[in-house]
Amino acid sequence: MKKERRIAFIFTSSREGMMEKIKKGEMPDAPLRGMNHLREKADHFTIPSKSLTSLLKVPRLLTYDFVISQDNLILGFFVSCLAKIFRTRTKWLYMSINSSILIRRNKKKPIHLFLLKLFWKSYAHIMCISMEQLEDFMQLRIDRSRLSFVPYAIIDPRFFQAQQIAPNGEIILSVGRDLGRDHATLFKAAEQIPHPWTIATSKKLVPPDTVLPPTVSVFYDKDSPEVRDLLAKSRLLVVVSKHSHVPDGSDCSGQTVVLEALAAGVPVIATERAWMHDYFVSGEDLIVIEPNDAQAIVRAINELWDDEERRKRLAKSGHDKVHARYTTKNMAQDLERIMNLLE
After folding, report:
1. pLDDT digit string (tens) for 24-42?
2. pTM here?
3. Which listed site, 20, 127, 194, 278, has its alpha carbon 20 to 30 Å from 208?
4. Is residue 1 part of a domain?
5. Distance CA 54, CA 208 (A)
6. Most distant CA pair in the chain: distance in Å?
7. Is residue 162 in some structural domain?
8. H helix runs in 177-307, sequence order
């Protein structure tokens, strides 16, 4: 009889309160990264990414077959090295969120870049949420056999289910607290649009002296149920991000909110980022525009606002793709596939 695998997830903040809310349907299960859908029960630990005390967890982590984390670079290095020294079965699975940004930021810092390469090369496997990340790792001579493209499947269908495909709400919605957002270009576009525009963001992204266009309302730190309610009232979701070469925010800026909006049946206009082409077809599932181009945003909104049939086609195509491919159950299946390959 096959022995049950021992699996541990590492999170940088506690999931205890979240898990209770997820069970009640009060928030989506995205923060669990597929843990709750694995066929085998997994343990989880809260370990801040820059805490030296995290090294005290090494002996405990070496009792697991697989440890899954998207942070904790140094801890992963120690666990991986000691697993080889003591010949334990432990394999560190790293889910890459900001690897490309880290590479760009440290391109002219050879010591920092050397350490990053050292950490990444020690891991049993790296899961890339975009092909751009995978290619960046290969440029660093990380062995291709240790790399997989694993879509960032973070949609909870129970939570983000379409009430109506392409709702006829009267607002344009923009959501995002990522530093990769380009609010300057967004505001330039909003000045030329007569329709109400709601922005759910973080205070750090909107300077206190910002003069808002008269049609714009800004709200801060909205939680998932509030974002879901805003999506139900929206006609369009517009995500405006900085150019991908700007080392701000996450590698796949806008990814979560685009997936959530399409899951909820809302058509999307978004600034081009490399990850989008790994997940969707531009013009079929969403509208992709060039960065730093307020006029392109204005044109896309004007073309879609009164074209209900086109909005429905886009929203339905994107919605169906998200619910078929990018749910947290899909993420759990990908994790199990990789663990099977590594055994």
Report:
1. 999 999 999 999 999 999 9
2. 0.94
3. 194
4. no
5. 37
6. 67
7. no
8. 183-190, 224-232, 255-263, 276-279, 294-305
